[in-house]
What we know:
Layout: H1 2-20, E1 39-44, E2 50-54, H2 67-76, E3 85-87, H3 90-94, E4 111-113, H4 114-122, H5 127-138, H6 141-154, H7 177-187, H8 191-197, E5 201-205, E6 211-215, E7 232-240, E8 244-253, E9 256-265, H9 273-288, E10 289-295, E11 302-307, E12 314-319, E13 323-328, E14 337-342, E15 347-348, E16 356-364, E17 367-376, H10 384-396, H11 399-428
Parallel strand pairs: 11-15
Antiparallel strand pairs: 1-2, 1-9, 3-4, 5-6, 7-8, 8-9, 10-13, 11-12, 12-17, 14-16, 16-17
Helix pairs in contact: 2-5, 2-7, 4-5, 5-6
Amino acid sequence: xxxxxxxxxxxxxxxxxxxxxxxxxxxxxxxxxxxxxxxxxxxxxxxxxxxxxxxxxxxxxxxxxxxxxxxxxxxxxxxxxxxxxxxxxxxxxxxxxxxxxxxxxxxxxxxxxxxxxxxxxxxxxxxxxxxxxxxxxxxxxxxxxxxxxxxxxxxxxxxxxxxxxxxxxxxxxxxxxxxxxxxxxxxxxxxxxxxxxxxxxxxxxxxxxxxxxxxxxxxxxxxxxxxxxxxxxxxxxxxxxxxxxxxxxxxxxxxxxxxxxxxxxxxxxxxxxxxxxxxxxxxxxxxxxxxxxxxxxxxxxxxxxxxxxxxxxxxxxxxxxxxxxxxxxxxxxxxxxxxxxxxxxxxxxxxxxxxxxxxxxxxxxxxxxxxxxxxxxxxxxxxxxxxxxxxxxxxxxxxxxxxxxxxxxxxxxxxxxxxxxxxxxxxxxxxxxxxxxxx
Length: 439
């Protein structure tokens, strides 16, 4: 009883420490650059820590960012073969007429490989080639759009819908920054996708002998522009009047890897804000943030009460693995808040070292930045004697025994009732008085 009472007090003490003693820190603020984008995000690809966010769940128009989904379906199709040939047809040339989409100027009957087609879709963002890919890999444009929406659902893109494969502005083609991150992260699993979207130039030769060099629309990758950024790679640009300037890109420096997503940047003839703002966000991150070890796995974090053991009343819990995350360079690690939660108030022996017995949530600036399993730091043997006592206690407190107790109580009550009833009847029995004669 004393042991159980102490355990409850200990749990309450831990709860008070973790819940009522947090230290509030300031949220990250971008310094040195104004962001014109209507929605955007800068996220670590290493830890998934978001350093900058703006309207990440708000509906936006993706423009040619749509082609990331188109490329994913191409790469995942059983038909895709980098060396196989595909022929330009009249329907893909006709469908782009009057749309304002960029076109390849390839002629009907010219053939190019599936790999070349992928470059025309992602690198140069040609509308006619994208429609050709949709028709070939989907059987029809309409079916390909259905495939796009099915894939979006499978990836959990709850704020995304497509009505065409190229990103032509339509009310039913929309997405969110958060969904775009999930989609792009999925696409980057394919090495070919990374190779294609990281190129600045690519040469194609059709079967009719036409040779041309494709140029990327992503000026962060193009050394001939003022926006070239040596640490950037990928991914896709997009633009319509309704969508504004859009850009999904990645950058890596000194072991740090980020993705920047911007939608609805200011459209200006004198300045490409999508490239400029992405570049500045990367610089801000590389200059102001670094990995910091929040906790190692060598020191105990807390304890949890143990039952059914004669050797100890508690077992120490440790982080399953060291926890590091990206924090501002000037962050005071003492302001981090770690909130522990356990699988139960107490845990029964036997316990093996490394058993997961809880979780620790790490908070900085009132934002959860990570979760780590809490594991037992040592073995705890079970006591057979205490186990038998537990079984005995459980047996006598089981539902079966409760029924027996109830039957016994009812039987006793009935016995008492009849006992008093019979005795009461005896007391009421009258004895007739017979007088005797006096002599």
